[in-house]
């Protein structure tokens, strides 16, 4: 029989963030160890395979939630990580004398995405400095200082969003991820439309955009530029912009996902609101894998060069994620999770 501690641990881990709430993981309990595996949940629309950067960030987030939970319960585990291309990603050996009682770390339940507007006051300097100093392996944080640097980063978000709105695969993925009816939302994965903080008319606009042929026709008249501009409204008003950066080699993105999740959890625990922006990283990765929308190669190449200058990246380093941070005006709708039976199995 699986010990209740392991099931509680898996449930805490599953609160981790993932791109479009895909939850591309399965935890398997072998009796001695917890293995982290990849699962492609909606293969017909999915754009992230097992070793793609977006998936590795999510796996890092899962591992970080596990470690925060173990720490809160005074349990020491030992991770063993596999080489790129191998499954499981990692395996956590746990002691046999697990505690009877279980403590849920409050930070795990506090962490969430807030896509609403934030207050304009600055982030409390002590909190800003604490997260700016956070590190994980070869991953670190960069806090954008000064209006010129922040404006330059927002421009990179805009250019990357333009490329995204012209990308058929990303269009299919986004509309495959949206959940609107109560039954769809209750399925527990994907993006509940209520969490998007859409303005009045936003849902109608989304429905209108959902047809790719129509979207492609509108793009010929520059719709993608208009949509990208609207995407930058909130981020250009953000009191703070934080970036997770560091080595992009092999499975280093797992460490980036750990750092992202630790910092995000600390910010939320201290009352700050967070929204990640992945579009710049994703478009630069697509440039390298030949998956950009046709015609955007030069623009995204220039985005990558400017990123290196702006964030002071060394050779071999990359931007993993941008975080818009501030203090909330309202509590957002919270996303759901898949039932535990879909993300955790016991092989006993
Ligand atoms: C790799 C990755 C990419 C993400 N990209 C974005 C993004 O570009 N915009 C956004 O609003 N949220 C983004 N998110 C947040 C997820 O959509 C969010 O974590 C997920 O829906 C679960 O919601 P929660 O964070 O409230 O638990 C991203 C998260 C991850 C891990």
TrEMBL record:
InterPro entries recorded: Nitroreductase-like
Name of this protein: Nitroreductase domain-containing protein
Source organism of the structure: Telluria antibiotica
């Amino acid at each position: 029989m699986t010990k209740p501690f392991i099931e509680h641990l898996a449930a805490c881990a599953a609160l981790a963030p993932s791109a479009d709430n895909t939850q591309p993981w399965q935890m398997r309990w072998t009796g001695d160890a917890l293995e982290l595996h990849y699962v492609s949940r909606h293969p017909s629309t999915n754009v992230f395979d097992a070793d793609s950067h977006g998936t590795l960030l999510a796996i890092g987030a899962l591992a970080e939630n596990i470690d925060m939970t173990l720490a809160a319960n005074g349990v020491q585990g030992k991770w063993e990580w596999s080489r790129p291309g191998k499954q499981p990603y990692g395996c956590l050996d746990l002691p046999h004398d697990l505690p009877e009682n279980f403590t849920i770390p409050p930070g795990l339940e506090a962490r969430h995405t807030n896509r609403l507007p934030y207050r304009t006051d600055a982030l409390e300097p002590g909190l800003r400095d604490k997260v700016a100093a956070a590190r994980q392996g070869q991953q670190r944080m960069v806090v954008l200082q000064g209006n010129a640097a922040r404006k330059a980063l927002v421009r990179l978000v805009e250019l990357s969003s333009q490329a995204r709105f012209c990308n058929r695969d990303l269009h299919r993925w986004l509309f495959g991820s949206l959940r609107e009816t109560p039954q769809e939302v209750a399925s527990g994965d994907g993006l509940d439309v209520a969490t998007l903080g859409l303005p009045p008319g936003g849902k109608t606009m989304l429905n209108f955009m959902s047809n790719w042929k129509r979207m492609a026709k509108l793009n010929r008249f520059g719709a993608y530029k208009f949509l990208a501009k609207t995407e930058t409204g909130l981020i250009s008003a953000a009191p703070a912009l934080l970036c997770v950066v560091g080595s992009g080699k092999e499975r280093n993105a797992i460490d980036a996902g750990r750092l992202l999740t630790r910092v995000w959890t600390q910010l939320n625990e201290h009352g700050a609101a967070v929204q990640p922006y992945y579009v710049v990283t994703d478009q630069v990765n697509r440039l390298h894998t030949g998956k950009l929308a046709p015609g955007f190669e030069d623009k995204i190449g220039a985005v990558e060069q400017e990123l290196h200058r702006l964030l002071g990246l060394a050779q071999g380093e990359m931007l993993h994620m941008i975080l818009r941070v501030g203090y909330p005006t309202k509590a957002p709708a919270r996303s759901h999770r898949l039932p535990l039976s879909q993300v955790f199995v016991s092989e006993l």
